[in-house]
Backbone:
């Protein structure tokens, strides 16, 4: 039988072991808590970005559900249309007559004007028949076919206009002239005129002030040359200068007519160069009345001469105003001599035609 001392010693040893085990478990628990705290502390102050709010992603959507602004979306295609009038071989095409549209992938469209194309080049000229004109924008390309007509296939030379005309605005100006709320002097204060007696008549009939006119009866290209400085001074800063010469030196000689047109061409180039911001508009030689048509052989060449003038204008890039068709159909515009025109021709037709045809 064990003594009381031995029993007591066994109990003390068992109790000690339990205490040691409890202490060990406690140490492990404390260490675990400290480790978790260190990890949390490290995550709290690390530079790793916070997790994004949870949402469902659509991996078929290249923009991940965020639609970009349409102005930054990639262009799908480029389209171009020609909205202008008849085009002529040897002439230019007005850039504003082409509508260039960017169609985007999101279905939106935008008209663009900062494209690249041959029509923007002053040296570009159309050829007879079909012309394929290419446009490029932002790496995209499109082309349009336009037809250019040979003017010699027409009965009279056509108007040749190098600007898009605001028809509504032009008509408003004509309406104001018709109802008297706008005077011809005020309506044409943004233009100047040079020529022979048929231009001088604007001043002698009291329609437009002489301050806007450089003209003299019986003159032609020599007068134009001698008075070029005055013509330039009048034209500078104006919207347009109307130039009308030719009848007084019209010849039956083809060689002389060619020489005169070449002289005219050089003078117009000088005027255009001196006044780059002013539209140079050539008014063709006016026809004569049927009553005097056969009185001088040179009159037979007026229409053909005007075709040559129109072709020359297209070549050098100035505009051309044609009145042949109207005047041949309205013989009442001629005065008693069959050559000069009535005041009503200028106020009832010619000046208003300049407004509507040229958009001035």
Residues:
């Amino acid at each position: 039988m064990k003594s009381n001392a031995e029993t007591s010693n066994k109990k003390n040893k068992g109790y000690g072991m339990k205490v040691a085990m409890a202490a060990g478990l406690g140490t492990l628990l404390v260490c675990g808590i400290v480790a978790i705290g260190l990890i949390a502390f490290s995550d709290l102050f690390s530079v790793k970005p916070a997790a994004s709010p949870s949402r469902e992603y659509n991996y078929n959507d290249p923009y991940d559900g965020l639609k970009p602004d349409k102005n930054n979306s990639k262009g799908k295609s480029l389209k171009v249309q020609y909205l202008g009038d008849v085009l002529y071989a040897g002439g230019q095409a007005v850039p504003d007559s082409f509508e260039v549209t960017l169609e985007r992938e999101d279905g939106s469209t935008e008209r663009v004007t900062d494209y690249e194309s041959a029509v923007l080049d002053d040296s570009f000229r159309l050829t007879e028949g079909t012309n394929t004109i290419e446009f490029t924008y932002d790496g995209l390309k499109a082309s349009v076919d336009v037809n250019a007509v040979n003017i010699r296939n027409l009965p009279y030379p056509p108007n040749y206009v190098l600007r898009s005309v605001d028809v509504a605005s032009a008509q408003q100006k004509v309406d104001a002239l018709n109802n008297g709320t706008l005077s011809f002097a005020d309506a044409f204060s943004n233009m100047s005129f040079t020529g022979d007696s048929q231009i001088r008549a604007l001043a002698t009939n009291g329609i437009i002030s002489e301050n806007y006119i450089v003209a003299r009866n019986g003159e032609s290209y020599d007068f134009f040359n001698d008075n070029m400085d005055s013509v330039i001074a009048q034209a500078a800063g104006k919207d347009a200068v109307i130039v009308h010469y030719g009848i007084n030196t019209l010849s039956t000689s083809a060689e002389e007519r060619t020489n005169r047109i070449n002289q005219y061409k050089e003078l117009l180039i000088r005027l255009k160069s001196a006044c780059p911001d002013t539209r140079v508009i050539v008014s063709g030689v006016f026809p004569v009345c049927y009553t005097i048509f056969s009185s001088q052989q040179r009159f037979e060449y007026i229409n053909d001469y005007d075709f040559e003038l129109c072709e020359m204008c297209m070549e050098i890039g100035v505009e051309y105003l044609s009145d042949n068709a109207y005047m041949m159909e309205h013989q009442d515009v001629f005065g008693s001599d069959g050559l000069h025109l009535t005041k009503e021709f200028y106020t009832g037709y010619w000046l208003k035609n300049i407004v509507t045809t040229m958009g001035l």
Notes: Residues 25 and 31 are 10 Å apart (CA to CA). Residues 1-73 have pLDDT under 50 and may be disordered. The longest strand covers residues 140-149. Residues 4-45 form the longest helix (42 residues).
